[in-house]
Amino acid sequence: MTRDVIDINDFTILVETGNSEEETVDTCSFEEPLIAVAFYGSGNVDLKVKYGDSHQKYNYTKGLTLAFYASNEVEFIHTVSALKPLECIVIATSIRNLDKLPHQEGELFGEMLQQLVNPKAAYVEGPSFFMSPEMQHIVDQVFNNKYKGKAKMVFFKSQMTSLLAHFFGQLSIISEETISADERQRLQRAKEILSDNLDNPPSLSELSKEIGLNTFKLKKNFKELFGVPVFKYLQNERLTTAHNLLRNNQLSIQEAAWHVGYDSLSSFSNAFAKKFGFRPSEIKW
Questions:
Q1: What pLDDT is recorded for position 3?
Q2: What is the pTM of this model?
Q3: Would you state the pLDDT for residue 7?
Q4: Residue 35 neighbours by CB distance under 10 Å
Q5: DSSP per-residue string spanning 192-257
Q6: How far apart are CA 141 and CA 155, in angstroms?
Q7: pLDDT by residue (tens digit) across 194-226?
Q8: Could you give the domains of the chain?
Q9: What span, in angstroms and rounded, lies between the C-alpha atoms of 167 and 212?
């Protein structure tokens, strides 16, 4: 497990990564009450938030962004395994610092996260949703950056500012959405089904039947909610999963291609190069 803590202005940035062949529990808590937004990367780690005699579980965290208030009595418990690595960025600030934040961030927190600014419990969940492709790209860049020292600080500062801007922008869009909460849950289920079956995904009609939405609504609202068409999302998931397997030296190129559903090594290599700008054989560990 690695945990970097970086202070930028009046924000505390926590960047956590973890990988384990055996199931491992990682616990984190804060020294003082904080308002925060967490962004989860490509790992699908299990999360349990424990506060007093209560707890809340999040069983699907891949691509999740979660706003919350947490007192210093709250524990965040991640269960990490080989198939569920931890990639998490937390941008946090204390309530007393809201007025000091630059670029109107404090005003946005007050306006759009009122339940967190005025908490009524030790842990209060704010808005949560799955990241747009732009947000996911920023998160991927953070976990794959090669910068050190002052250059790393400048890079982190720009990326955190951009992430928060996208977060509040996406939050304002969601508040005006016409997609019902029930349909959003069904579409999220569609994402889970695709992610769990990369090597043998269902057809569009099979997926539509499984989540209980007709194919027209599935195609239209999936793209509206997640920013990409259904099978573009599937392709991105396949290639990102393969990239992580190769980067962590877990599988050979052929094995990684098979694992995510590519029968043709040349097709896999070409699609990989188109997405990442380099071929699988060029990954440096």
A1: 83
A2: 0.68
A3: 84
A4: 23
A5: HHHHHTTTSPPPHHHHHHHHT--HHHHHHHHHHHHSS-HHHHHHHHHHHHHHHHHHTT-S-HHHHH
A6: 10
A7: 988 999 999 999 999 999 999 988 988 888 777
A8: 2-174 (2.60.120.10), 183-282 (1.10.10.60)
A9: 29
